[in-house]
Input
Amino acid sequence: MSAIVAALAIALTLSACGISGSQGDGPENPTPIAKSESDNIRIFSPSPEVAIVSPLIVKGEARVFESQFNYQLFDADGSVLAEGVGHAEASDMGQYGKFEITIGFKKPNGTEGTLKLFDYSAKDGSEIDVVKLAVKFGQ
Output
């Protein structure tokens, strides 16, 4: 009985201090549908099985410099349908921040394409933290 009381007291103390058993900077969904090799950008939606239409809503989380990343949407021919900048809502540097971006795009050529999220290297301007997601275009 005293072990249960002690465990309960510890749990209450940790809770009062704002400490929980889960990581505050971890993903809302433990299995992203796509992520960068570095795991700094994670995409949770849209699902590759669902046909997308304009405007496309992309949800995920990112841990990138100044919480800013870039996106591009390509059609089957490799033409850029849309591109821009997204922002993650990170609480502090080095933490994951959730993002939701809305991407309006023009009519694609073909029914398949690629969504690419990435960051630019401050060192040399190259693309880093690249994550690509195959998409299907709907009507």
Notes: The beta strands are 34-35, 41-45, 51-52, 56-62, 68-74, 80-87, 89-90, 97-103, 112-120, 127-137. The longest strand covers residues 127-137. The chain has one domain: 25-137. The first helix runs from residue 2 to 16.
